[in-house]
Amino acid sequence: MTATDGIPSRVPAAPVSEGSTETEPAMVVVLSEATAGHLASLAGAGWPGTVLVVGSVAEAREALAGDVPERLPQPGGLRLDADSRSVVHAPESEQLTPLEYGLLEALLADPGRVLSFADLTSTVWGTTYTGDCSHLHAVVRRLRVKLEAISAPVHLAAVRGVGFRLAPLAPLRGGALRSL
């Protein structure tokens, strides 16, 4: 038994090759019920190929195209760093979770355009929108804090009942900023 973060666990062993008595540690990945069902369907259909696990649809497109840019230039001096999975507004940067990165990447692809809850759910989570967007609002809330921490010149603007857009911030008298 090994422990990770104080939680005891058993690391399963898998045969090194078919018929071998020699084993090596196996990786255990916890998937949603829907994702596990999709993978089981592929395995049941006799899928002979490799399974690529990615964090977003955009990441899958990049990996399959073999065209993964090191750094994505963005408007307003804001950029995403794919290597460190962070957002940079020189000289500051903030680490992002895979979901935060995917959400910001989707919004930066077309700044100002409103992306619907369904589009964002599909792009960032790779799932179908079911009408509950609390997961999306939670990621937006965390991302807003991180963008503010680096004085990013943009704001994640909510479009009530529709979705979100990336809006530039405009200065007001007295140095305050407002979303356009």
From TrEMBL:
Pfam families: Trans_reg_C (PF00486). Residues 70-168 bind DNA. InterPro entries: OmpR/PhoB-type_DNA-bd, Sig_transdc_resp-reg_C-effctor, WH-like_DNA-bd_sf. GO terms for molecular function: DNA binding. It comes from the Bacteria. SUPFAM superfamilies: C-terminal effector domain of the bipartite response regulators. Keywords: DNA-binding. Residues 70-168 form the OmpR/PhoB-type domain. One of its GO terms (biological process) is phosphorelay signal transduction system. Residues 1-22 are annotated as: Disordered. This is Phosphate regulon transcriptional regulatory protein PhoB (SphR). It comes from Serinicoccus hydrothermalis.
